[in-house]
Amino acid sequence: MSGAGSPSLAVDGSGLRVAIVSAAWHQQVMAGLIDGARRTAQSSGAHVEEFAVPGSFELPVVSAECAASGRFDAIVALGVVIRGGTPHFDYVCSAATDGLTRVAIDFRIPVGFGLLTCDNEDQALDRAGLPGSREDKGAEAMASALRTAQTLAALRKPNT
Ligand code: DLZ
Predict the structure, then answer these.
(1) Of 21, 24, 26, 156, which one has the greatest count of Cβ atoms within 10 A?
(2) Domain extent listing, the chain
(3) Is there a catalytic annotation at residue 26?
């Protein structure tokens, strides 16, 4: 899947509280993703809190706790998984993806999906929002989560 066709989402995040949950593997790429997510939240006016996890496998459990706390309108999960020579890649990717999907549906909270699943580090760097990157997946995940939070808030407003 490429980034072609991605929308440009202008978001007013004022009054929204968002948790960024980020994994520690592949530090250079992660720094770009976190920076993109932070910048987008800050320029939208959203309030941000950040939580670190060791690897992408741990993203769902901490995201679930953020959701259960009731303190956040949206969560953005950031991680990078790089394909190696073992099936580990597939297990970590599907555990993180399935887990984050469950958090979103079970708690009915937007979870911005900023998990890069790449064949190699160059591919990941190209999506990390760093100087020279073609895409900024941290910023995209944040904009999507905030925009979805607005949609949910509108749906939950009582009819007048
Ligand atoms: C074990 C592992 C491997 C091989 N690769 C990655 C990776 O590319 N990206 C990532 O975020 N995490 C990786 N991990 C760590 C797992 O996500 C997890 O932290 C450990 O298996 C401990 O539960």
Answers:
(1) 21
(2) 27-152
(3) no
